[in-house]
Amino acid sequence: MKNQEFIIDNCQVTAILTGNLQGELAAGIRETMLTYIADGYCNFNVNLTKVNTINSTGLGMLVNIQKRALQQGGNISLEGLQGTVKAAFDRTRLSKAFTILECKPFADKP
């Protein structure tokens, strides 16, 4: 899961994802996030600003994590939807199923 960043702040996990959210990458992110849920974390913020594309595997992974988080009394919010990623959420109407936040700018690491 090269270039994926997970930050824990209090009881929230922020995932800053990069690349094409599909296939093995989506499966790896799913496993990581399920590990956080198993460890007691149930609130997630997923930053998709640096995600180029997303397919049904990536969308399904996010739906699955949302379901698990809700079962534990938590939530998942998404930010940074743009371009083809935003179009995929709109086309599937998943933009109505998730909390979508305005994108907060963040500095790239040197």
Automatic annotation (TrEMBL):
InterPro entries in UniProt: STAS_dom, STAS_dom_sf
Gene3D superfamilies, A to Z: STAS domain
Family matches, as SUPFAM superfamilies: SpoIIaa-like
Stretches that traverse the bilayer: none
PROSITE patterns per UniProt: STAS
Domain STAS positions: 17-110
CDD domains, alphabetized: STAS_anti-anti-sigma_factors
Superkingdom to which the source organism belongs: Bacteria
Protein name per UniProt: Anti-anti-sigma factor
Species per Swiss-Prot/TrEMBL record: Sporomusa termitida
